[in-house]
Write a structure and sequence with these properties.
This protein is mainly beta. The protein has one domain. The chain is built from 2 helices and 13 strands. Strands 1, 2, 4, 7, 8, 10 and 13 form a 7-stranded antiparallel sheet that branches. The protein has a 6-stranded antiparallel sheet with strand order 6-5-9-3-11-12, with no helix packed on it. A hairpin with a 2-residue loop joins strand 7 and strand 8. Helix 1 runs antiparallel to helix 2. The longest helix has 21 residues. It is globular. The N terminus and C terminus are likely disordered.
Length: 250
């Protein structure tokens, strides 16, 4: 118990010394670089998989996304799957998202469930982060003929750390909460980096499954707190002391 207490204290004191444990950067390529609907208004949701190498708890997330107008040029484009068929509304955050739902899931490998491609399985973690706790900044723009898409970067600390098991694959979903009926809507931006299986999207299939997004992975970074080498040495020393004490009692 003493060692556990010391480790917990060290994590608390190192909360600001985060490291990036996973990174998939946004695609700003005019030929790609789409944002896919992941919000409560449609409703819809997007998820992507990642690998946990060392089991360090996730304390924060960075992700990228954009807004678009479903009534572009007087025509409704609702429902939709990505943002780049019509106009991007504003160069600044429009203030329609009230919060983001961040969810982690266990992995269902390809061929081991329905649908047959890999997808999120058992719910492991879900937290709702108010927009006031999210730093939203302009990341850049993508120009496609008459359409200019503004891509935003979002940074947020998790209210509760997500603890994982080393060597496992997990899925992350990020869903915006925005008011129903508002013509401005939100999508999660795709990444230039690809790992393992494609991202999936729920909300457009009559089966209710996670639909495959062929060739797509989403843009996000996961942040963790490292265990300092000095702490590991301290932990080893404490374990040795505990063992010595037990031997003396015998």
């Amino acid at each position: 118990m003493l060692l556990v207490g010391v480790l917990f204290l060290a994590y608390s004191q190192c909360a600001t010394a985060a490291i990036i444990k996973w990174s998939q950067q946004p695609s700003m390529d005019p030929m790609n670089g789409y944002s896919f609907s992941s919000e409560t208004q449609v409703p819809s949701g997007v998820a992507d998989d990642f690998f946990c190498e060392k089991g360090l708890p996730i304390i924060g997330i960075t992700w990228w996304g954009s807004y678009w107008d479903t009534m572009y040029q007087g025509q409704s484009h609702y429902p939709y799957k990505n943002s780049d068929s019509w106009g991007d509304p504003v160069p600044n955050p429009p203030g329609i998202v009230s919060r983001f739902i961040v969810t982690f899931w266990q992995d269902v490998p390809a061929g081991q469930g329905v649908p047959p491609w890999s997808h999120p399985g058992t719910l492991m973690y879900a937290e709702t982060i108010p927009i006031a706790s999210v730093q939203e900044t302009v990341y850049g723009t993508i120009n496609r003929e008459s359409v200019t898409e503004t891509v935003f970067q979002y940074d947020a600390a998790l209210p509760v750390h997500f603890v994982q098991e080393a060597g496992q694959i997990y899925w992350l979903s990020i869903q915006a909460v925005d008011p129903g009926g508002d013509p401005l809507q939100w999508g999660w931006h795709e990444s230039i980096d690809h790992w393992n299986d494609n991202a999936v999207q729920m909300g457009f299939s009559p089966t209710g499954w996670w639909d495959l997004l062929p060739g797509e992975d989403m843009a996000f970074e996961l942040k963790a707190v490292p265990i300092p080498a000095s702490l590991l040495l301290l932990g080893s020393g404490l374990i040795g002391l505990v063992g010595l004490k037990r031997r003396l009692r015998r």
